[in-house]
Amino acid sequence: MTKQLVHYVVVDAFTETAFKGNPAVVCFLEDEEKDEEWLQAVAGEFNIPITCFLARVAASGTDGSSPRFHLRWFVTTVAEVDLCGHATLAATHALFTSGRVDSDTIQFVTLSGTLTAKKASEIETVSTSTLQNGDALGFFIDLIFPTILISECNSENVSSVSEVFDGASIVEVKKTAKDDHLVVFSSGKAVEDLQPQFDKIRSCAGRVIAVTGLAQPDSGFDYVYRLFAPKLGVNEDQVCGSANCFLAPYWSKKLRKNDFIGHAASPRGGGVNVRLDEQNQKVVLRGKAVTVMTGSILV
Fold first, then answer.
1. Residue 15 in contact with residue 138, Cβ under 8 Å?
2. Average pLDDT over residues 92-113
């Protein structure tokens, strides 16, 4: 039986420098016939935080409309997830740079509904010059994502989370609509200096814990954040894009503005330019990406 090739690229997202930002594998499928067990096995084989799979929606884009792709995200060997910002940015970058689309806008059909990605025009990128040393290399991509609501935690959860970060200067603890936790520290420096104990984080309620704090005034950023997800097989998500879906509404109330630059203070580091659209309950995540590897899978 003749083997087929599934082409893939490895892309570093929310950066314009290879081996920085957050890596993702993007696999191009000819159709959606691959079963979930195979998709999860491929993700485990790569052992990169997220492996995503693209399959074009039949006849999409042929009538002048935006091309549409089915998009699914898998975390190593653990599970499929319903939203991932950095892998969506990686998939968009891969489609634009491979010549698979001839439009500046792409629609993704996902577990979180239809998401839109588009190239940002040159005039729009002027205000983002502090994000990743200007826009001299590559192009910016905008992702339009839904906001994620946050609410108060009960006292039991607050106590549990506080024990995880024993000794840290915690201002407040919130929970998201997805039962994740948002822990606000007294400063961005406290977030940067944090030495996470992943066994403790794994024992805490909820899937993931995001920590955040106000950035230093001269840093060029508005807030600092990190996200830990050991239950999903990713101790620290290097630059989590989707976390900004609840960070933006939180910091909007604190800072009384809707445009931010968030700094992911992980070992690889990265920045996300964020705009909150309160009226439509959307966030626009802007960033760059760079392809670092290409290849094929034999199936």
1. no
2. 96
